[in-house]
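Final report, results section. Input specification for complex C-07:
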Amino acid sequence: MNATGDAGSRVWADAALAATLCAIDPAGLGGIVLRARAGPVRDRWVGHLRGHLPASMPIRTVPLHIGDSRLLGGLDLTATLRAGRPVAEQGLLAEVHGGIALLAMAERVSGATAARITSALDRGEIQVERDGLALRIPARFGVIALDEGAEPDERPPAALLDRLAFHVDLEGVPLGDATASATTVSAVENARSRLPRIVAGDDVLQSLTATAMALGIASLRAVHLALRASRALAALAQRDAVEAEDAAIAGRLVFAARATQLPSAPSPDAAEAQDTVEDSRTEAEQDGDPFDRPLDDMVLEAIKAALPAALLAQLVGSDGVASRGRSGGKAGASHRSKLRGRPVGTRAGEPRGGARLSVVETLRSAAPWQPLRRRESGRTQSIARIDVRPEDFRVKRYEERSQSTTIFVVDASGSSALHRLAEAKGAVELLLAESYVRRDQVALIAFRGERAEVLLPPTRSLVRAKRSLAGLPGGGGTPLASGIDAALALADGLRRKGETPSIVVLTDGKANVARDGKPGREQATADAAAAARRLRVAAIPAIVLDTSPRPQPQAEQLARDMGARYVPLPHADANAVTRAVRAAAPDPG
Amino acid sequence: MSRPAPFPFSAIVGQDEMKLALLIAAVDPTVGGVLVFGDRGTGKSTAVRALAALLPPMRAVAGCPYGCEPDKPAALCEACRGAGRLKSVQVPVPVVDLPLGATEDRVVGALDLERALAQGVKAFEPGLLARAHRGFLYIDEVNLLEDHLVDLLLDVAASGENVVEREGLSVRHPARFVLVGSGNPEEGELRPQLLDRFGLSLEVRTPTELALRVEVVRRRDAYERDPEAFTARWKSEEAKVRRRIIAARERLAVVTVPDRTLERAAELCMRLGTDGLRGELTLMRAARAVAALDGDSTVADVHLQRVAASALRHRLRRDPLDDTGSTTRVERVVTEMFAE
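Structure output:
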C-alpha cells in the first residue's frame, strides 16, 4: 500500500498518532509494527516516538538473532565467578520492563523468538527456567517491530502481529510529509496519568466488536487493542470517557490493516469469505477441466501404490546430506555447527575455533571438585573463588537445520494434459502429503503454452498448494526449458537464503517450445537439455517423474542431463482404478 | 510480589469442549493429557491457568520435593519410602508452566549449583518435572518446544518416572503429571509421537456470533480493569465447578461401563480406523469421567458422543490434503452410528 500525494501526509499523521498512543500505553497496546525500509522517514518516526517517551522509560533494541540467555536471562559468568555463587543476569525483556523493545528486522524474526516475546506480552512477566535459575521477573513492555520486508510474504510472525495494536506502513511516504508532531511531551504525560480513570461505555465495546466482525477480523485481540487505543485517545483529548470519535479513530488505526473483507459483504467469518471467493474461482476454472473431482480422487487412490515410497526422503538422501533412516520425517539438511541453530547439549572441550563455552555446564563440572582442589592448593581461606581447570570446560553443541523446500515443476502442456495431467496432479498431491509430514515447504511451477509460471511461491500451507494445483488448466505447447529455468531461479534464490531446495519435475519430456517462446521441437529439446545441464551444475537434487503412458526415452534423457533420478509413473489402468474405488468405498451397513 | 488472580474458569465464554476436556483431566488424570490447538486469541492459555485456581487441594508428604501421596506406599519417592511415619499437609495441585527457552537442567533437575559452589555439597535440585508430579505440566506453544526437550518429556510421560544421570548424580523420582499443551497449528506441526501422548485433543475457534464476541470482550475488559472485583464476582460460580470436580472424583469409582457401551466404543474406533487400543481406552475413560461429572451412574451413548471428537480426532489416519478436518470426519461417523 503505497501512499502518494495527499495520502502521504495522512498516512504519516496516523503513524505519528499511533506512536503517540503507544507512548501513552506501551504495554497495554502491545506496540506497533512499522513497515518501512531503514531511511530518513523511519528515523524521523522513531525519533518522534522517542521524543514522546519520558526519560525514565527504557527503550532497547532487540537484535535479530538474539540468544535465549540474552533475551530471557541466565547466569552471569563474571559475577558468578567473582562471588563464588550463582548470580543471575537480567535478560533484555526484563530490562525493558515499563518501556519499549525495538525489534530489528522483525520480518526475519524466528517463530521461536517471537513466541518468547509474545509469551511475555501476554503475561506481563517472564518465567526463567534456565541455567539452574527459576525466576519470575515482571516484564510489561511495548514492542516496536521494524519490518523491512520487501515482498508481501516477508512479514513478522503472525503471532506477534496479532498482539501489536497498530500496523503502520510508511513505504512510499515522502520525507516532506513527515512533519513534526503538534502533541507535546507533557500532553502525553498528562494522558498517561489520566488513562486508568477513562471509562468506555458498553456501546463503544459493542460497536468495536461489531466493526471488527464486519471487517472479517477473527481474532478478538484486535477488539481489545482497539478498546485500549480508544481509551488512550480519550486520555489524550483530556476526556474522562471514550466518545464515538475516539472509537472511530481507534477502529481505523487498529482494524484497517487487519481487515480481510469489506463491510459491504457481511459474512460471519472472513477466512471463510475469502475461501468462498477462491473456491468459486477454482470451480469456474474447473468447469473446463475434463477431470471432475471424484475422478481426481479415484486416480489419486490408483497411483498411490504406484509411487515409490518415501520418494522425497530419497531425493534429499541422494544429495548425501541427510541420513535417510534415522532422520526420516525430519526436515532439511542438518549439520552440526559450532555457532548457530538449536542447542543439542554440551560436550567436553575447549572454547576454541569459535565454539562457545557453556558457562553453567563448565561450572557444574567444576563444582564437585572444589573442596578437593582447595585442599590440594592449600588455599582454604579464599573460598570466594572457584577453581576452574581446563578439563572442566564444556562447549555448546548446536544443530543447524535449514528449511527444505520442494519445488514441483508440472508439465501442463497439451501432450501431458490430455491423458496424464490428472494423474500428475495426483502424484503431486501425494508428494505434497509427504512434504507435509516432513515439515517441508513446497512451491509449484507450471509450464504450458509459451512460458512457465510460479503458481505458488514457497509455502507450508498445503491447502493453498492443493488449491492452486486443482485450478491448474492444461493444454498448449511444452516450454520445458522455461520450466526448468524457472525452477532453477527459484532454487537458487532459496539456496542463497540458506535453505535446501530440491526439484521434482513431472513431464513426458517432449519439449516443443523453445526458451524464447517459439515453437519448434529441435530447438526446444536443445534448450531443455541445456537448462537441465545447468541444473546439474548447480547440484540441486532432482527427480524426473515420467508422466507419459509408456516410459519415454526423452524423459529419461532429461533426467540424465539433470543428474536426476528417473521414475516412470506407471500407467494407472482401468482395473487399478476400479480396484482402488472398490477399496475406498465405505462398507455397506 | 503478588500476582493478580487468574481469569476465572467459569467466566470463560463458550469453548465448552475445551472446558469439558480440562474438567475430565481434573477428574481422571489417567485420561492422559489435553492438547488445545486453535486460533489466536481464543483464551487457550487463559483456560489452563484458570483451571489451576480451581483445583481442590491435595494431601502431600510434608517437605517432600516431589509432593508424594502419603496413602500410596507404592508410588513414594525413595526418601519418603525410607522415612517411616509420614506427616502430610494440604498443598495446592501443582500447575507448572514449562516456558519456551527452558534449559534441560531446569526441566529434569540437576546438580544444585549454589550448594555445590558454596559448600562443595553434591545435592540434587529438582526440576520442573518434579514440581509437576501429581499435577499438570503446561506447555504453551507446544509445537515450538525444542526437540531435545520433547524427547525428554516423551520418555518421562511414558514411564511416569524421571531418571537423572548427570554430573555424577544418579537420581530417580516419580513424575506423573497431566500434560497440557496449547498452540497454533500455523506455527508448525506436532511430532506424531508427542501427539499420541495427549489423551484428548481439541480445536478451539473464536466465536462467530456477535453477542458471544461482545461478551468475551466485555468480561476480559472488566477483568483487566479490576481483577480482584471481577474474580470476587465469579467466586460462587467457581466454587460450584470445584464441588462438581470433587463429587465427580468420588463418583468415578462407582460409575459402571456396560458391555454395550464398550462395544459401541470399539465399533466407533473401528469405523474411524484409529490405530491401536489407546483411542478406545481414552474414549472409555473420558466418557466415564463425563458420566461422573454429570452425576450419572452408568456410561451411555450420550457420554461417548460428547467426548468422541476430543478423544479420537488426533488418532485418525492422517490425510493432510483432505480439506474436511478430522473433526468433521469424527462427527460424521458419530452421527451415522448413533442414528442407527
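Chain B touches chain A through 60 residues (CB under 8 Å). Chain B has a mean pLDDT of 85. This concludes the modelling results for the funded period.
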